[in-house]
Amino acid sequence: MSEVGRRWTFTRRGAEPPVAPWIRTRLRAAPGAAVALALLVLATVCLAASYPRAVDRYEDAGLRRAVSDATALRTSVQMSAPPPSLGASQAERESVLRPASVRERYQRILKVIERPLVADPDQSAYGVRTTKSLEAPEKWLPRPTGLPAQMTLVAQNGLADHARLREGRLPRADGTVTAATPELEAAVTTETARRLHIEVGAVIHVPAVERAPLAVRVTGIVAPRDREGAYWATQPVLRTPSLVRLPTQGAEPSIYWLGALLLAPDAAPALLGTPGAPARYWQLAPAPAALTASELPRLASAIAALESGPGLLKVRALTAPEADASTDLDDVLASYAGLRSGIRPLVAVAAFGSASVAAVVLLMAGGLAADRRRGELALLRARGVSLRGLTARLFAETAVVAVPAAALGLAGALLAVPYGRLSYAVWTAAAVALVACAMLPVRAWLTHRAVRVHGAREDLASVRPSRRRTVAELTLLVLASAAVFALRSRGTSGGSAGTAGAGDAADLDAAGSGSGDQLVALAPVLIGVIAALLLVRLYPLPLRWLARPAGRLRGAVGHLSLARAGRTSLSTVLPLLALLTALTTAAFGGSVLAGVADARDRAALLSLGADARVEVMGALPAGLPAQLRSAPGVREVTPLSIGYQARPGTGAETVPLVGVEPEGYARLAGSTHLGAFSAGELKAPASATGAAKSPEGAKSGASSSPSNDASHEASNDASKDAPLPALASPAVAERFGTQPFPVRLEDGSDITVRIAVVRELTPAVSGAEFLVVDRAGLGAAPARPTALLLTGDGMDAGALRKAAGSAADVRLRADERARYVDSPLQSGAEHVYAVAVAAGSGYAVLALLLALVRAAPERTALLARLRTMGLTRSQGRRLLVLEALPQALLAAVGGALTGWAAVRLLAPGVDLTAVALATPGGSPPPGTAALHTDPASLLLPALAVLLVATGIAAAQAWWTGRRGSVRELRAGDAR
Questions:
Q1: Contact at 8 Å (CB) between 344 and 514?
Q2: What's the rounded Cα separation, in Å, for the pair 233 and 75?
Q3: Residue 588 DSSP SS3
Q4: What digits encode the pLDDT tens for the residues 152-184?
Q5: Which of 474-488, 835-849, 954-968 has the lowest mean pLDDT?
């Protein structure tokens, strides 16, 4: 019988007394620390596992949007094969055109397609069509220039499933149709019937081979269910007739209508009796839901195999040796890959920065736990516990908390982002859990390799940097320099975007992966690391120098706080590293987001010239400017008289000429920073006011009266003596110089202008060539306003459109700005970037809290001892605030300077155009987007760090002052 504490236990003689389990005992001893670790691991795993799935979500959405926005004519894979040659029997040639044969080949072709290219069965189609249009001699068909209309005969499957019957009935094929069948039935779409004046019951004849023309009777008119779907849009002539222009030498073009007659699939063999060269075809529409950005190289390989590889050989074996395949889907994929290659590196910068700060926080949490249990672990080592056994116990103890928390974090990530690859999320969660489990054992192994009862001092006054640390810091300096040099020289895209246009699988793989150099994405982080290590080495020196004169002041608070801050622990490296890395990443990320927003605002301003633009094809109503001035939010209205077909000099080139009111237009140009100038430079002289020659005055003839000739001659002399001063673009100024030259306006009148001001930009028009003159120097017709530029805040688009009328084109700057966010790839990348920067900032604040919590017991004991010596509560608060202030000030100032330096160093290699100014249809963006420093992103995080540090120190001093000092003064009680 033995006594353990106050409990009696009965054991057998010679047996060991029962021992409480290690893990349960440790968790019960410090439940708060276990809960804090679980929450930290849960939040970190949730963020880390959500990142790859969020990237997958917006990249896949961007790819599907790119394919959906492209026309079906570009994205569909079109295959065609002629019927057997004339050497085959007529029955054999007819049999291959029958629906069963064409359908069988279609099903076999679907098996040839390699994944991840998947055909959409609802939009894919097959059938037989004439490859040459057939002339229809009917006189009632429209003939714009006298040429008869021509028809394409198409027997495509699934007409009933993809069209609604408007009139009549769908075409049928009675009996067995052969090449000698004299009459067929067909349907036309509503657009074809309207434009070609076709009604139900009409008969259209087309040429036949060695027999009477083939009669096609229209039995129905149908409307497409989805006119933009691949079934109709792959061959647009099926739904919409078109005007075809023949190449001619004369002035009058030769134009004829081309339409389509939709036959029943069983009527396809009859096309062999026409000269239309019938061919079988299979058009495969890709299924957007099956497209994923991660499989972009494989997708490009599958397309290449169908166009000119093994897939095409298999298709020819199934159909005919002359079969062919074509698609522009590879070009669509290459365009998407180029956009993604410009966005991925920017997101990687934020991801690496946030991941680095999170790793530092996990290391700090392990260091805090190791410091809290330093005495316990040292005692275990002194009593004979092996280093391997100690680290194994600590690993198991941490894993019991970290692994379930990581599982919960992974589940939260899967619920928060339900789309994306699961494997990446699981591996990321496993990596975070492994780091969380290993941080305490590794720290204990490094600290307790040698058995020591009393540890040595670890402040900067007693421990000097070792050679290993110096080598490590120099290595980091070399890596940071290499990353900055690579980023400045190659840019974030690494040149892959430019090669993506070929559509090759290797090119798409290179473009999709960005530069492929993770060192470039780590450049801001490495700059922050170098700055942190440099500041840790240098900042104690000025504090010690300041402590000497502070010692001569009255009171010990200032001297003591500076002395303690100057002899700070070596553990300050990790908090400072976390803060500087987070501040650098936040500054870089904030500058990126600010640069994107500024570029879009600038592009919208360049496109419109003001906050809103109202424009019509002719002249605006006279009362419209006054009406719009009274609209809500409108501050000023600037009328413009724009003539886009003005002809300067004697050449045939046209240049936009804008008539303005100099005072108002000068204010607008100055406020928008688009070619500011002085109003006096553009004001027309009094002698040139209204001096434009009218079209009638430009004509010379014997019928003109002497009085009219004299008046026109005087007008010409006035115009020559006082030409209109003009504002011109550099291209126009280079062509005409500063000498007066004539300009022929759209109404036929002439003016004489002289270039007085040269500006690259102007609000009225965008482009490389323009002329701006005073409206007072134009005639009555050219001076009438055709456009209005509106400036103001909070303008109502609905009110403006209602006031301007339906004929006017009203565009607002906000709407124009939204056009540049064309793809989910852009918006998704911006959201992920913002979340990553916010997460990094949150981890930086957490690192600051951990650093203060780590020093809290020492500071509490210090205040307790000093309070016994007469230190007041207010002095204690000032002591803790002044002690924390140097580190916080160092982190804030150093973070701001490091962020500024990172942006300045990396700006030449960062191009924001892809993420900021992607435009619909792949049109070139108006300008470029460059990275520049954002003052708010530099100062606000730094001020937040300063306020949090001083606030926590003041709160700690207040809380310590309310508690008693007996516990802190008990010798040996450091719990």
A1: yes
A2: 10
A3: helix
A4: 999 999 899 999 999 999 999 888 888 888 899
A5: 954-968
Q: Could you give the maximum distance between any two Cα atoms of the chain, in Å?
A: 144
The first and second tokens of residue 302, run together, are 């599958």
CB 880 within 8 A of CB 954: yes
The one-letter amino acid code at 647 reads R
CA–CA distance, 357 with 575 (Å, rounded to integer): 10
CA angle 607, 613, 616 (to 5 degrees): 110
Q: What is the pLDDT at residue 12?
A: 53
Q: How far is CA 481 from CA 144, 533, 536, in A?
A: 70, 15, 20
pLDDT band at 222 (very low <50, low <70, confident <90, very high): very high
CA 425 to chain centre: 23
d(CA 32, CA 47): 23
Q: What is the pLDDT of residues 603-645, one digit of tens each?
A: 888 888 888 888 877 777 777 888 788 788 888 888 888 888 8
Which is nearest to 821 in space by CA: 593, 485, 554?
593
Give the span between the Cα atoms of 532 and 357, in whole angstroms: 13
* Amino acid identity at 679: A
Q: Is the peptide bond before 116 cis (omega within 30 degrees of 0)?
A: yes
Q: 175 burial class (0-12, 13-18, 19+ CB within 10 angstroms)?
A: exposed
207 close to 134: Cβ distance less than 8 angstroms: yes
Dihedral over alpha carbons 729, 734, 740, 743 (to 10 degrees):
-60
* CA distance linking residue 740 with residue 727, whole number of Å: 13
Angle at 482 between CA 477 and CA 486, to 5 degrees: 150
- CB-based contacts of 561, cutoff 8 Å, min separation 6: 878, 879, 882, 883, 885
- Taking the alpha carbons at both ends of the chain, their separation in whole angstroms is 33
pLDDT above 70 as % of the chain? 81
Q: Which long-range contacts does 668-671 make (Cβ < 8 Å, 24+ apart)?
A: 668/609, 668/610, 668/636, 668/638, 668/763, 668/789, 668/791, 669/759, 669/762, 669/763, 671/791
Q: For residue 412, how many other CB atoms are within 10 A of its CB?
A: 17
DSSP annotation of 669? H
The per-residue pLDDT of the chain, averaged, comes to 79
The amino acid that residue 844 corresponds to is A
Buried b (16+ CB within 10 A) or exposed e, 248-277: eeeeeeeebbebbbbbbbbbbbbbbbbebe
pLDDT at position 368 is 78
Which of 44-53, 568-577, 798-807, 891-900 bottoms out in mean pLDDT, i.e. has the lowest? 568-577
Please give the residue that has the higher pLDDT: either 513 or 73: 73
